[in-house]
């Protein structure tokens, strides 16, 4: 999967780095109407009085929908009292009965409770007196079968014969034959699945996954005899159990058949419906799938764990005017009853259930041959003019991967489909990759260079999965990083070779930002080891985070730097060849690397320390003469005590040390690059006296470095006098590290601010973007405490150090992706300030720039910033809304929508969010972007946070608990808070959710982040004020 929070290239800090940010105890806008953040003639902003006015608007406009009115009213600062009761109502603790109704009457509840207790007691006693595993036949693959695994009760009140969340290993599926008929008028589908199963251990039950399916009947074929069988359901674990009339014997094969019906899903997972409007305004429907990680079970009963690989024969009944697509090429089409047509697809290769896919609808395509594989790109008919670029890019990348992995793409065809409604960025279903429209479609007129970069990166990612993930799959979701870390890593490798102009190779900045982003998240106590224990569906969903993707890719880069490009590639090929069509653990990859490289280094031992522990190392360097002393500990931002770095639980032997591979020192004015691998981390002795020292060449290692008071002073001096002596990435790395250390209190904020002043002479983007990322976090926090003068002083400071670079890059004829990223980061941070201070002088000074503005040859990447400025006035906003309705390119629409959402007028914002939540003129898939954009602005940020609280149930229904989208919404709406009141509010909201959110790791992260923000403000606000005061005094 390709998950990304912000489609447009926002500065990294806005995406992830939530260190500081936002607002005081006094800032509750609903409570204090006097505080007004911005001049009223520029911005429409609604303090309390207007909020009430909005309530009036709610009554007037929305009175047909009681609930909408109520949520709007609450959103506007009204009572939150009713929320918990509504939560309670829907959180019935009973499973659904077969007709879908919930909530049993209380007398029955009591009886059932007593009955359940009775069963529990007897089962506990029975288990106690029986030898281990008697009940858990085949279930002992899960260690620790403990007393708590008492069998649960199925929906019909009988005992469900399996207690584990994971399936038993007593049987294995070999082959599925699946017939599906999605009805795009009734929005239901019916299915028939026939599974060939082999028996590994004697058993009299078959336990498999099924969720939300209405089982109509089931039968089993044993020794050529058919038996009708009973099916028990246990919805809590998404499991069904088939009770077999006679014991299945080890080595025997049987065929299980199940008939079922279900509704096409309203969310973005499972077998779901999607719609789009034709040019003439008609709504058209299609049905598509998104199964990763745990939704195949919502489309057909199956063994929905990645290591139950099997072959699939899929048949789809469809209307004549529709097209059906699946993983494999179509074998035959047959007319069947009711004027329908049945498409039968070829039998698939052996694969995991989460990679199965099918789509039915009116899609059109263009195709091209790539080394014997037919590559096709599909989109809705209206967007046929936007698929050409994707086809060319895919062909080129596919050929690259076949060469790189030395394994041909194993299927005859590869389809890429832009699905109008899609939650993630893309999904790597084998042979049928699905995308959201913004990540596949490229419109020559409205798409920008960065849009092209994103399309190419996402295709590169998904194609890498066809090998890494599809051909070789992780055994279980704890090793998801093998899939996602590797695919993320390969984006850079493949693009470097295929599309160097896009500047998304390992040598470019993008990968650097990836590493820094991962380290920021990993520095929290709520982080997790890259290979983490997971069991439940939510835990599985939660694995799709920055750690699996970005930390995974960062560790692979570090390993590659250590082993060399050649060894790394050979090890990868060995791994893919050895485990083709199989499943693996992390260790298998390391074993393959071990086979290739020389014997001295044990990759497995080395990498274990990085994959089994959470966090990233902090290395402290002290230098005396020729001696360099190194000490390592965990880089942990902790709020509990003053000294906040050591992870004492883990001891001092925290990490092994591949980081010495990139040691630069300057000895008597010449560089010595030491790239030896040190097995012990203590003291290095070099031949000559060290003048200054810089570790972690190009930030290729996953760790930060503290050079001590003296060491930092030397480096700051070096940057100010001769910064180009260090690489661009090293400069960015120093900026990152010093701010990280400032947040720990290891260096002062003053030192960090002192360092970034060298940027006056900086021409490269990476250091600028990194500095902006750090400073933006601080500005956000300051701004939302309504310290507006202070925020303005910071922006003045930033402008003063960066204006030269801005003039250098802005509005040049040929602007590179790197430069655009830099400019967007700057303009995004400056926001309104950018209009007043940055743009206006340009407009006055330079008539060509003025022309650029007026006649619209503005680089399309800057469109969003310009639109955002336009959206600040009422007329401008209306104009943009109209433009949004008419725009046909998804990327253009997204840019306009983000501009619309950056309004300070909360009435408009609420309208946008409601419109999107109800899937009216704005797609619900875009709601997260509205919420996230609004969260950046003072005032609207509270509106967005309230909206999330009020509509939590709906958001979770649509986007799934634990999903990347939900994680992102939580992070972006709360990471700005820096006061104790907000901390309490956030805590109590999530506490009130109970099993509908309080247990999420991201919630712990959000709370930890606010605690850290509070601590940061307590420690540094005074310093910051003083530093800026002195600076202004001087200038
Ligand atoms: Zn992926």
From TrEMBL:
<dbReference type="GO" id="GO:0043171">
    <property type="term" value="P:peptide catabolic process"/>
</dbReference>
<keyword id="KW-0482">Metalloprotease</keyword>
<keyword id="KW-0479">Metal-binding</keyword>
<dbReference type="InterPro" id="IPR014782">
    <property type="entry name" value="Peptidase_M1_dom"/>
</dbReference>
<dbReference type="GO" id="GO:0008217">
    <property type="term" value="P:regulation of blood pressure"/>
</dbReference>
<feature type="binding site">
    <location>
        <position position="484"/>
    </location>
    <ligand>
        <name>Zn(2+)</name>
    </ligand>
</feature>
<feature type="domain" description="Aminopeptidase N-like N-terminal">
    <location>
        <begin position="173"/>
        <end position="355"/>
    </location>
</feature>
<dbReference type="InterPro" id="IPR034016">
    <property type="entry name" value="M1_APN-typ"/>
</dbReference>
<dbReference type="Pfam" id="PF17900">
    <property type="entry name" value="Peptidase_M1_N"/>
</dbReference>
<keyword id="KW-0325">Glycoprotein</keyword>
<feature type="binding site">
    <location>
        <position position="465"/>
    </location>
    <ligand>
        <name>Zn(2+)</name>
    </ligand>
</feature>
<keyword id="KW-1003">Cell membrane</keyword>
<keyword id="KW-0735">Signal-anchor</keyword>
<keyword id="KW-0007">Acetylation</keyword>
<feature type="binding site">
    <location>
        <position position="461"/>
    </location>
    <ligand>
        <name>Zn(2+)</name>
    </ligand>
</feature>
<dbReference type="GO" id="GO:0031410">
    <property type="term" value="C:cytoplasmic vesicle"/>
</dbReference>
<feature type="site" description="Transition state stabilizer">
    <location>
        <position position="549"/>
    </location>
</feature>
<keyword id="KW-0645">Protease</keyword>
<keyword id="KW-0862">Zinc</keyword>
<comment type="similarity">
    <text>Belongs to the peptidase M1 family.</text>
</comment>
<dbReference type="InterPro" id="IPR042097">
    <property type="entry name" value="Aminopeptidase_N-like_N_sf"/>
</dbReference>
<feature type="domain" description="Peptidase M1 membrane alanine aminopeptidase">
    <location>
        <begin position="389"/>
        <end position="610"/>
    </location>
</feature>
<dbReference type="InterPro" id="IPR001930">
    <property type="entry name" value="Peptidase_M1"/>
</dbReference>
<dbReference type="GO" id="GO:0006508">
    <property type="term" value="P:proteolysis"/>
</dbReference>
<keyword id="KW-0472">Membrane</keyword>
<dbReference type="GO" id="GO:0005615">
    <property type="term" value="C:extracellular space"/>
</dbReference>
<comment type="subunit">
    <text>Homodimer. Binds tankyrases 1 and 2.</text>
</comment>
<dbReference type="Pfam" id="PF01433">
    <property type="entry name" value="Peptidase_M1"/>
</dbReference>
<feature type="active site" description="Proton acceptor">
    <location>
        <position position="462"/>
    </location>
</feature>
<feature type="domain" description="ERAP1-like C-terminal">
    <location>
        <begin position="692"/>
        <end position="1011"/>
    </location>
</feature>
<dbReference type="InterPro" id="IPR024571">
    <property type="entry name" value="ERAP1-like_C_dom"/>
</dbReference>
<dbReference type="GO" id="GO:0070006">
    <property type="term" value="F:metalloaminopeptidase activity"/>
</dbReference>
<dbReference type="GO" id="GO:0042277">
    <property type="term" value="F:peptide binding"/>
</dbReference>
<keyword id="KW-0378">Hydrolase</keyword>
<dbReference type="GO" id="GO:0005886">
    <property type="term" value="C:plasma membrane"/>
</dbReference>
<keyword id="KW-1133">Transmembrane helix</keyword>
<feature type="transmembrane region" description="Helical">
    <location>
        <begin position="110"/>
        <end position="130"/>
    </location>
</feature>
<dbReference type="GO" id="GO:0008270">
    <property type="term" value="F:zinc ion binding"/>
</dbReference>
<dbReference type="InterPro" id="IPR027268">
    <property type="entry name" value="Peptidase_M4/M1_CTD_sf"/>
</dbReference>
<dbReference type="Pfam" id="PF11838">
    <property type="entry name" value="ERAP1_C"/>
</dbReference>
<protein>
    <recommendedName>
        <fullName>Leucyl-cystinyl aminopeptidase</fullName>
        <ecNumber>3.4.11.3</ecNumber>
    </recommendedName>
</protein>
<keyword id="KW-0812">Transmembrane</keyword>
């Amino acid at each position: 999967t390709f998950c990304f929070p912000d489609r447009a290239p926002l500065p990294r800090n806005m995406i992830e780095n939530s260190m500081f940010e936002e607002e005081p105890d006094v800032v509750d806008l609903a409570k204090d109407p006097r505080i007004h953040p911005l001049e009223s003639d520029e911005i429409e902003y609604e303090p309390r009085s207007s909020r009430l006015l909005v309530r009036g608007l709610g009554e007037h406009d929305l009175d047909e929908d009681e609930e909408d009115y109520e949520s709007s009213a609450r959103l506007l600062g009204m009572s939150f009292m009713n929320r918990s009761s509504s939560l309670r109502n829907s959180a019935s603790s009973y499973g659904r009965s077969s007709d879908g109704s919930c909530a049993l009457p209380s007398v029955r509840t009591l009886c059932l409770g007593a009955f359940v207790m009775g069963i529990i007691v007897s089962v506990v006693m029975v288990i106690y007196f029986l030898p281990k595993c008697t009940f858990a036949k085949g279930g002992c693959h899960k260690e620790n079968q403990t007393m708590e695994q008492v069998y649960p009760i199925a929906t019909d009140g009988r005992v469900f014969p399996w207690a584990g969340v994971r399936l038993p290993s007593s049987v294995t599926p070999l082959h599925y034959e699946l017939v599906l008929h999605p009805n795009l008028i009734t929005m239901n589908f019916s299915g028939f699945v026939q599974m060939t199963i082999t028996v590994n251990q004697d058993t009299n039950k078959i336990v498999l996954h099924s969720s939300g399916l209405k089982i109509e009947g089931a039968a089993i074929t044993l020794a050529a005899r058919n038996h009708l069988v009973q099916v028990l359901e246990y919805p809590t674990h998404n499991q069904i159990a088939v009770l077999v009339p006679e014991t299945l014997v080890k080595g025997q094969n049987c065929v299980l058949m199940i008939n079922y019906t279900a509704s096409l899903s309203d969310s973005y997972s499972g077998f779901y419906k999607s719609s789009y409007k034709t040019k003439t305004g008609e709504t058209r429907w299609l049905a598509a799938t998104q199964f990763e990680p745990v939704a195949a079970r919502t489309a057909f009963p199956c063994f929905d764990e990645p290591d139950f690989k099997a072959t699939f024969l899929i048949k789809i009944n469809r209307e004549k005017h529709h097209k059906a697509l699946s993983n494999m090429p179509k074998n035959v089409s047959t007319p069947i009853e009711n004027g329908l047509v049945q498409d039968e697809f070829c039998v698939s290769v052996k694969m995991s259930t989460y990679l199965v896919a099918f789509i039915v609808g009116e899609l059109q395509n263009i195709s091209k041959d790539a080394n014997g594989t037919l590559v096709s790109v599909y989109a809705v008919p209206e967007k046929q003019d936007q698929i050409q670029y994707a086809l060319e890019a895919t062909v080129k990348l596919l050929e690259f991967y076949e060469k790189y992995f030395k394994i041909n793409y194993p299927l005859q065809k590869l389809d890429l489909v832009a699905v109008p409604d899609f939650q993630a960025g893309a999904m790597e279903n084998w042979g049928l990759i699905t995308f959201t429209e913004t990540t596949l479609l490229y419109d020559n007129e409205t798409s920008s260079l960065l849009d092209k970069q994103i399309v190419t990166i996402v295709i590169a990612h998904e194609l890498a999965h066809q090998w890494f993930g599809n051909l070789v799959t992780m055994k279980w979701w704890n090793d998801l990083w093998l899939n996602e870390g590797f695919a993320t890593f390969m984006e850079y490798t493949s693009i470097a070779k295929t599309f160097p102009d896009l500047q998304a190779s390992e040598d470019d900045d993008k990968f650097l930002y990836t590493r820094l982003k991962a380290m920021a998240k990993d520095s929290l106590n709520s982080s997790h080891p890259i290979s983490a224990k997971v069991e439940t569906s939510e835990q599985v969903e939660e694995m799709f985070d920055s750690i699996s993707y970005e930390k995974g890719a960062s560790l692979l880069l570090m390993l590659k730097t250590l082993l060399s490009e050649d060894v790394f590639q050979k090890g990868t090929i060995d791994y893919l060849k050895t485990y083709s069509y199989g499943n693996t653990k992390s260790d298998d990859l390391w074993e393959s690397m071990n086979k290739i490289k020389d014997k001295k280094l044990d990759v497995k031992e080395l990498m274990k320390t990085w994959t089994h522990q959470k966090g990233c190392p902090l290395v402290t360097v002290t230098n005396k003469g020729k001696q360099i002393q190194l000490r390592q500990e965990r880089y942990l931002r902790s709020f509990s005590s003053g000294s906040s770095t050591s992870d004492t639980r883990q001891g001092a032997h925290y990490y092994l040390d591949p980081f010495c591979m990139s040691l630069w020192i300057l000895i008597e004015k010449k560089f010595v690059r030491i790239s030896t691998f040190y097995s012990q981390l203590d003291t290095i002795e070099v031949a000559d006296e060290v003048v200054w020292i810089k570790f972690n060449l190009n930030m290729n290692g996953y760790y930060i470095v503290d050079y001590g008071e003296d060491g930092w002073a030397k480096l700051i001096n070096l940057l100010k006098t001769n910064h180009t002596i260090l690489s661009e990435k090293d400069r960015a790395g120093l900026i990152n590290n010093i701010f990280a250390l400032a947040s720990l209190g290891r260096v002062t904020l003053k030192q960090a601010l002192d360092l970034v002043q060298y940027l006056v002479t900086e021409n490269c983007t990476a250091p600028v973007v990194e500095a902006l990322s750090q400073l933006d976090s601080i500005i956000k926090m300051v701004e939302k405490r309504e310290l507006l003068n202070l925020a303005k002083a910071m922006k003045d400071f930033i402008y003063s150090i960066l204006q030269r670079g801005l003039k250098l890059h802005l509005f040049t004829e040929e602007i590179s992706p790197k430069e655009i990223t830099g400019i967007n980061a700057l303009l995004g941070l400056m926001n309104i300030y950018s209009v007043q201070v940055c743009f206006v002088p340009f407009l006055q000074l330079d008539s060509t720039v003025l022309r650029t503005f007026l006649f619209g040859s503005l680089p399309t990447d800057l469109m969003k910033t310009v639109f955002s400025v336009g959206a600040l006035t009422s007329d401008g906003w209306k104009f943009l809304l109209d433009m949004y309705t008419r725009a046909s390119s998804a990327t253009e629409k997204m840019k306009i929508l983000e501009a619309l959402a950056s309004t300070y007028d909360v009435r408009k914002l609420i309208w946008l969010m409601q419109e999107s939540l109800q899937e009216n003129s704005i797609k619900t898939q875009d709601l997260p972007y509205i919420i996230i954009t609004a969260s950046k602005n003072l005032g609207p940020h509270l509106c967005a946070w309230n909206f999330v609280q009020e509509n939590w149930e709906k958001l979770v229904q649509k986007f799934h608990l634990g999903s990347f989208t939900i994680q992102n919404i939580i992070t972006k709406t709360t990471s700005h808070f820096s006061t104790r009141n907000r901390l309490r509010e956030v805590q109590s909201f999530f506490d009130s959710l109970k099993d509908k959110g309080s247990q999420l790791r991201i919630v712990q992260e959000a709370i930890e982040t606010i605690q850290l923000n509070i601590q940061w403000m307590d420690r540094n606000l005074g310093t910051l004020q003083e530093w800026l005061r002195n600076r202004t005094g001087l200038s």
